[in-house]
Model the fold of this input.
Amino acid sequence: MDFQLTEDQRALRDGVREILEGRFDGAALRGAADSGPPSLDRALWRELGDAGFFSLRVPEAEGGVGLGLAEAVLAFEEAGRALLPGPLVATFLAAGEVAGAAQGTTVVTAASGGLVPWLEEADVVRGDVSGAVPLRSVDPLTPLHRVPGDGGEGGAADAEGDLLIAAEQLGSAGKTCEMAVRYARERTQFGQAIGAFQAVKHLCAQMLVRAEVARAAVYAASVTGDGAEIAGAKLLADEAAVRNARDCLQVHGGMGFTWEADVHLHLKRAWVREGLGRSAARAEEELAAAL
Amino acid sequence: MDLTYTQEEESFRAGLREWLARTLPQLPPRPDPLDWPGRRAYDMGWQRRLYDAGYAGLHWPVDAGGRGATPTQHLIFLEETEKAGAPYVGANFVGLLHAGPTIASEGTAEQRARWLPPVLRGDEVWCQGFSEPDAGSDLASLRTRAWRDGDDYVVSGSKIWTSHAEVADWCELLVRTTPVSDDVPKHRGISWLAMPMDAPGITVRPLRTLAGSTEFAEVFLDEVRVPVANRVGAENDGWRVTMVTLSYERGTAFVGEVVACRRVLGDLAREARKNGRWDDAVLRRRLGRLSAEFGALWRLTQWNVSESQRAGSGVPGVGGSVFKLRYSHARQELYEAAGEVLGPAGALDLGHEWTLDRLSSLSYTIAAGTSQIQQNIVAERILGLPKGR
Done:
């Protein structure tokens, strides 16, 4: 048993982070959030396709990268850190099945938990979206439709989808922890950095604890692929992303309540992802049933 | 990332399971949880069986009398013994998990030969003399003094919350060997001594916990003579030695307990299905959430063990604080849920195992560094936030 990232996995994670930092940094995120109704950056989508992001799990014989669920989770964690917009999970799961999805030339979305992200921008829609009505999404970078029912759920693809959403939540939880710590070291009040105050320290420490517990759950579920473990990973990662964003906002004080700080974007995306895939109630019932 | 075990590890697991299946039915009945001398005898009898079967001090170095097993084998040992419902380490807790590893890592050859074999055989019980009435969370403020007189230290002062003092043979004792001054900050000037509990001048006054038992005590020291040869580590270097001890306490001391909590959670679900409480969706979902919680804490344990195995140190790092923070609260939530499963009548039944565990779980956010201190450690040593108030 060696439950640590391999050298290759570290390299993959660092590589994805580098690509995203170069192509979708904080300024790009802010620009996208400020530019009115969201539109999908198709050039970026194709660049991700060229880099092998969507074809990570497609076998090499079929032109993919031939890696596993664990590597996919590391890539999606990075996407979550960067708050990359778009129907990444649905397109990733369609790679190898829908032409052009692996290359990033076809954008795929799907109904998930009764919600459909990016319906109007998608080229291909999976699942039953008849009767879809637009919502005013809380997240400025995730347009949403609602469909009657929950759009169908329970298959293996849904389980993998939930795990990838959990990985994005994990990335966001880690990022907001870093943002809070950086701010707590820089911002001074009463003649010292606010990070010297225990009340602020304890908020930050709990953010790290939440992120690390969620990390263990998400990584382990990616290795075992176990259904109950994936349900637990989604539950804990949802909670880590939402609670960490809220605590990060609190550490930022008045600045955190403005549009200018990026914190609210993480919180709103975390809320949206919480509504996609398995809900907390369903995950808890599934885990209870397995006891 | 790999969660599979090697063939060697699996055959170790199989051998252990077979031994547990054969040995556990031979154990005497468990003593009353409030009968502490009875518990000492029971716990040490279990330790003796482990020793005879070659399972004692599994993760200790071979030259300390252990088997030099890998952290992963140690993990398997803790997992399987808990799964099988084997006795808890109990009275041997301090010796096996704190004092022993500290002496193994910091002691001389003579010290290791003197103190480690009796711990492994279950012959001698250790207690922990760290905290004082005015030095609990602020451990470095301790005031118990030791001054040199020939080949002895003469020790005066008092300790409190000394686990297992009532039945202990030895005490891992922190004393101040150089007074605090402008030249000697409070973290310096502390030494780590092995004190025999039968030395003249020691008075033990058992403290009754809120659970009604006397697992710890006040210990009064009135000019107790402890040989200088009993000092582990250099004089005035006790703080560093203590940090070794505490990293064991925070890092590996709770591993088996996570497995035990998962077992208890299964028991709670069975009981709730039997007594009708399972129909309460709020309670059911609460148990489901706890399942995710303890599942993740088990994975975090495997993560930390793998990390220490890669580092080759065997000593858990500061990440132990992350684990301890979450685990101590999760354990309290588990036994809160147990109270709900039992319902009002059960919650008031002091004779029920879950009620006693519910009461004792309240110590988890206090002992071995309070949650507030742990949060400071995480914030300052991992996240790099500035020291302050």
Q: What stands out?
A: Strands of chain A lie at 108-110, 115-117, 124-126, 133-135, 144-146, 188-189, 192-193. Chain A has a mean pLDDT of 95. The first strand of chain A starts at residue 108 and ends at 110.
